[in-house]
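Encode chain A's predicted structure.
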Amino acid sequence: MFDKVFKAYDVRATVPDPLNPDVARRIGFGCARLLLEEADALGRTDPASRRIVVGRDMRPSSPSLVEALKAGMRAAGADVVDVGLVDTPFIYFAVNHLDAAGGVQTTASHNPIQYNGFKVSRVEAKPVGKGSGLEIIQRYAEEDDGSGEALGQETTVDLWDEYRQHVHQFLHPDLISGKQKLKVAVDASNGMAGTFMPKVFGDVPGLEIIEINYENDKGVFVHEPNPLVEANLRQVRDAAVEHGAAAGICFDGDADRCMVVDEKGLPVGCDLLTAWLAGSFLSKCPGSSIVYDLRSSHSVPEIIEQHGGVPNRSRVGHVFMKGKARETDAVFGGELSGHFYFRDNFFADSGAMAFAAVVSNLLDFDGNMSDAIAPARKYFQSGEINFETPDKQAAMDALVAAYPQATTDTLDGVTVDLGEWWCNVRASNTEPLLRLNLEGPTAELVDEKVAEVSALLGTRVEE
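Encoded structure for chain A:
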């Protein structure tokens, strides 16, 4: 049963089979036991070290699951602090603001409405994933018989004012004062951005926001809450053009990721957005590290270096990105998936802060969004292409063997660099697939090399 709900980065499954309140209670017990043990190992004896922050998203199954989760935590001896209906990055803030032992958000992120799950963070909102504690939580959950009485306490707190102040450190003072104004379209995807946007940005004098899909209390998604799928951007693209907005932003279900479209409604790759935003962070913190995921365009490290920064390449996934950001004291980082990381946010990702950074940079830029991104559009990219293959490792080995003259590395999957063009092929952490990203100087060469490499990787999965 538990093998069906524990994934690479979190707990996620369909409700009620296999994920239901009984399973959630036992997972809560496992989470609390791990987090309390880690607090003990740090030598902490203060009352805050017994606290675990708990929040939930807007899914119809979330209230019952979070109640069961809290019961399991209290049975393990934890004091539960319930922060209510919040976006996932709110949990990262609350864990640090309250100096808690950790936090758990009840959410299934961008998955369809019948899914739910749990994202777990430890002290300082450091991530818990497979290989860094998630397997221990599973073992503790399997050992729990669900009969324990509540030992810990439960309190409810409202931290929205504090969260708003925290996020606003990334917002341009002229927007806060209303001295300058900016119009943007925002698609909340019927998710948690529909809650945080009005609370955090709703009365900012300088922002005129065209609201799309803010309703999140009906248990219905107008479109899949995954902004990486281009079809899901249609409404925000149309709205940006129709209303003459400076940009459009579409959030995922739990609002830790976002995708940007320019004033023409054209999607902006998150790697290119990382390159553009890096400039402003480096102007404030010269010589700092900027972290980017290895699938990103080569224009990203080039632009970081142009601004005097130190580019640091990371494995794909928030666990690895956060780890690399801490290791290098990175002021900022971005991932192709739409996660953006901030040193002043405990090295954690935040959709709200990414929004603040984008609108603030636009206010300072003398031109349109498309003009701002243009320098990063130096190369042509294939986009991520998926392949089914019976032997993932054999396919990656065949790729390396096919290009003996290439520079290769195995930081995440295999990257093959021929100088003129390069590609990365990696196994999915969540699906039985290989994922290809390829880049070159012309669209024709990219198409040619995609066809060449595809022959080595198996059966292409058409989206």
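The CA atoms of residues 66 and 106 lie 6 Å apart.
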